[in-house]
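Hey, quick one: can you model this chain's 3D structure?
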Amino acid sequence: MAIGDIAMFDALKTSMRWHEERQRVLSANIANSDTPGYMPQDVEAPDFARILAGGGFAGAGLSPTATDAAHLRASTSMAGGFRTVAGTVAEITPDGNGVTIEDQMMQMTQNQLDYELASSLYQRGLGLLRTAIGR
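Sure thing. Here's the predicted structure for all 135 residues.
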């Protein structure tokens, strides 16, 4: 059994990939803070409750995969990209730019903390597995 077959680890990996993509989009917002007419963007957060209920994400639902009659586990691979959506705009400058550096920096800091939390949970989960198998 691969680590990716465990739903908790798959969800944490999806969360970390989402935070990576969000960091890229927030960085692009800051890079375009002087671009006339540029509006900030954000990345739509995955709805983990919907994913686990079978609704899927980006068109990929959770469906059982049986490669052997003795297998009972379902595949929980969450393939697909993340959708970019319009970000929040606090104020618009006279040249039409809607990026507020302070807001973007606060979002980046929160995103980084959330990524570190997911990464820490992933590492602790691996530690528990190592303990369980006696290594």
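One thing worth noting: Residues 55-63, 72-80 have pLDDT under 50 and may be disordered.
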